[in-house]
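Example record for the data management plan.
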Amino acid sequence: MLTSWEAERPLQNGPPDVTTLPRLAAGNVCVFHRTGKLYWEISLPKTKSLAAPACIQLEWAPSGDKLAILMAGSSSVLVWSVNTKESQVLETGFKNSEVSWLSWSKSKSQLLLGTTKGHILIYNDLEKKKNPVMGKHTKKITCGCWNQDNQFVLGGEDKQITLSDGASGDTLTSVTLSGDPMEACVSQQKTDDSKVKQESTISVCVNQQMLALMQVERDPASGQCKLELLMELVFQEQYGVIRKHLWFGDGYILVGFDAGNMVVISSHRREVGEEIHSGKYLEGGLTDLAYCEALGRVALAGGRHVRIVAVGTEIKELKSEAIELDAQETISCVAWTDDGQVLTVCTEGGQVYGYLCSLPLVNGICNTKILHLTSLQEVCLVDVHCPTQKISIQTKPTVVAIGMNNQVWYFEYDDAMTDAQQFHKKDYLGSIEDIKVNSTCVALMMEGRVLVQQLEGMGSDPNDSDNFDVLPSSQSSNISCFALTEHFVILGSKNGVITYYVSTGLAAVNEYRHDGGGIQKLFPQPDGTQLIFEDNMHNLFLFNPVNDQCITISGFKGIVGKVMWDCDNSNLFVATDGLQLKTYLHVPLSLYGASVKLIGEQTIEDSHVPVSVVNGVVWFQVRNGSLDSCVLHTHTALQEGAKEEEHKKSEAMFNQALKLHLLKESWACAIALKSQKYLQKLGDVAIECMDIELAIAVFRQLGDASKVLSLEQICQYDDKSLVAGHVLVLMGKDIAKAQEELLKSSMPRAALEMRRDLKHWDQALELANQLDPASVPEICKEHAQKLEMHGDYVQARDQYKQAISKATTSGNQEIVGVCNNGIARTTLHLGDVREGKRIAMDIGDRNLCKECAGILENMGHAHDAAKLYEYSGLYERAATIYINIKSFTNAAPLMKKLDPEKNGKLQIQFAKAKEKEGKYEEALEAYQRAGDMNGAVRILLTCVNRPEQACKLVRENPKIEPAAMVAECCKKNGDFALAVEFLQLARMGRQAWEIAEARNEMDAYVEFLPENTSPDEFQAIAEYYEARQEFERAADMFEKAKLHTRAIRMYMQVGLSAVGKAINTVKLSHDRSVASMVLDWVLTENAEGEHQQYIFELYIALGQYDEAAKSSLELAAFEQVHGNYRQAHSQLFTTSQRLLSLGQQLPLELNRALTLLHSYVIVRSQTNLQNHMTGARLLIRVAQNVSKFPAHTVNILVSTVIECHRAGLKETAFEYASMLMRPEYRQQIVAPYKRKIENLVRKPDHEKDVEPLSSECPYCNAPGNEMDLQCHNCQNIIPFCIASGKRMVLSDWSECPSCNFPARALEIHNLLTVQPSCPMCLKDVNSKAFVRIKKLLTPPT
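Corresponding structural encoding:
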């Protein structure tokens, strides 16, 4: 707000609430209200020296009711009264002496006047008395000041500084300066003693060049004062001359220079002379400065600019508050009102500007709406959700109540109004201390009581002065504070009682008594469900009226100024003492109950007063009437992150959301951050806050299946205490707290189950006696078991006995049995061996006996332990103990019961003991059970003289040492063959060779050669045999030595009986020269071909598969010529299998020969099946190649004629019957068939043969004669069916499981009904083995 008006000269000072300015042209001084309105005009008396009166100094009395006016050239002073509006002329009475200076006392109603002659006048305004003092100074008095002790300091042109008593005017002390004093100030010097509050330090500006500091020293004995000059401070020349100086704060001096600089120095003796701060704030020079203690600010004026500098905790310029006048204006002086609300700026041109710099901090809040003072005569309502719109849109009228003194104005507005409208004004009987309003009523506090008046109907009845209710209803008036929410009126009393009333009917619904003292302040949550209060010890508490729970709020020291609940987060509130904001989070539900946490602290500017908190944003009322805001440090990342995209959410945002227990926002951040670390943190907090559903989602995301399953089971409970208890147990946290919660729940027995699961038996037993006496025996048993495990056997036995006592009553025999076992064990532990052993044996439980045996063994009672081990079936342990204590008689029967493989060492130990006793048979038996060959063989050879048994034993279990012992024995006995054998087993090959060579026992040597025998050794053996003309043995050894040529030569010496071995040598050698040797040898020895099989094998060995096939064909042809068709078939089949196993394709000739022979072989099977057509077709195939069957040509042709005739193939039957009539065949026809065939030829039947059936080629799917084995389309040879001789078809493909030759599934099944074997390999086979398979044929290459 800016106010300006015309005047000829500006004023120098003004009272706290009045702005003043003179009008010298009219001879008047005008007094204005701070709003700019004219308050009064003071007429100035005329003087003789001036044509018109001129005012040179104005001075307000500290009380603000008197104004002293100093006129130029006058020996009198005008004193004007604000109350009476009258002026009084105060004459000094000094002749020829004009008044040059005046000042009011700080502590009394005294006015001090100084004259140009050095005289002074002290005027007491209350007593209306004058006290003139002549000759205080010898020259003009130029400056002065008062201190709090009613003493004054004066400075004059005589370069003297005097300190005088304000009452009498007597000079107390004085000091002489080096120059003229221009300005004097008095204050308290900064010292280390904070208790000293006396204004005893004087600062004087000398010649505008330096600053003199003086100290008033008082002699305690005489009471006399002495003025001591401490120092004279000289500043840098670049600063210019001193314009003004003043004291502020804790003993600091602020000095302003005409160059525009401001310097701050300290008055502390250790810091005097040091510049605390220095800065140039005005480029055009400085003319005046003013300090406001209420605001802690300094106004620096120069040119047309005013700079505002804060001099609180830190010195900094407030650039936003700078003032700049028009270019033609030049500022002459500035002044603050005492409360700092108005800054007055005066110019050389006579302009006076009043700037509103600070307002009374008056405000009210309702949720997000703030009502605050914006000027001296205006209030504004702002919704911080839309701070630029002063009146927000509402669905119903909103009421505003403004109170002052004993009056209240009521306003309302709605969405149809542009400004709030006053609808009522009311005067009350007392001064209003506080006022609150909600949508239904208004509450006012006055004189320790609260008045509540309903808004409905207010203003409609002019006689409604008594239409209100008084709380409390009793006559006591000890109410110290109150609060109003939408539904409740809350009163706090001086005796510590908080009472809740329903706002509509004013019925008391809750009363809480605080034991910590009276209630000072109340800060309810908007809905009234939570309340923060301060007691008279300045402690803060959070009160829940639902359950009367009161939580101490820690971390706040001092007096709370205000507590603000966040409008968007009902669990967040901010407490302030005017210097700091402390952010708290109320956790209403957690594993550990409700709590309040301090989560943030931050400082606030001294010009800002916090008003409200909305979504982490604090709104302040600034002293200039505006609103400002800042984000709490706990919400900075959340406020920034709210504007970011999902993938940009930061770790800081997650941490702040988690700290504020905003779990949904934390979940979104954790998912966006894609880190298990954050999910784990969120899961822990969710569990702590008992948000089980979110915790399940988090741990499911983490893949923690066990926690998810556990939490899902907990989630089914509705009882919060039950849930809290289970969660505390699950997380392994405060078990005592978990028990407390479970006991409070609807299932208190869960506390007992928890203690039992955790094996906390002492606590479990205590709970069981209270909650479930039937479970006491079980708990006593388990408690006893724990005590026994920890070695407390006395207590354990007592618990076992107690459990038996309880269980016997309830008839629980299982617990009785377990506890009897425990008594047996603890009795043994306590040293009563006989009794403990008796109890264990009486019970008869093997496991108990084993446990007791272990106890006795540890206690050193070996024999008793062994007995119990034997009784429990642990024969090994019992035998070990018996052997250790040399009780072999007891050990002997146990040794036969032991497993030799598992108890070998024990058996050996027993055997050695028996061997020492000379009981060799028992020792031998034990050694054999233990598998100790050395011991057993030693006994057999040296003790019982049974070498044959020793040899047998070593052959069955060949080992080096026993074999060496047997070999040595055989050498001694002259059995060199056995000696060679066992030397080989003992891996003593050199000794074995020597004996074998010397004693002609090489066969034994060879028989027992080890697998790793070297070729050189085989060669040596071969040469040994060769020398002895044992050629076959020599050949075998040469072959093992890989000397294949020498081996073949040796086989050739043997003869054809060794040809098989020779061929095998060829296989191993892969040497063609060796093969040629064998081939030449075979051909030479068998020119007639009796050993063609050897040649076949030789070709196979050489990899000459075509030659091998030819050789096989020759062998088969040989057999076929002689009528041995089965042998020929077997030869070809074997060859085919051999070639196929080597991955070779069958040669065409071999395949045709096999097909032909197989067709002949299976004819009988087809005829047995009465399948004459197939038999005839097969015989036709054979008859077409009848030259290859010379031994049975006629028989084959006769059979063909007969089968063709039976099958109805008359034309083919006539053809082959005619062939039989040839002379070379006719005489060989068997008599029974000869006449029939002759008749068939004489009387032919010219009926055409039936065409054979058609089937598809398995390679190209082209149709063809089913008996034709070569496709006319693709020319591929088609596999034949081994059952019918027909070509194979893919739709009916099966294979013999033995030889893998194909067969039509239907045909082979029919064939197997008359014979049990495969027609190709002749191996018995089940018809079920022939199953249809999917076959994919690849044409042969």
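Summary line stored alongside the record: Residues 1-25, 388-396 have pLDDT under 50 and may be disordered.
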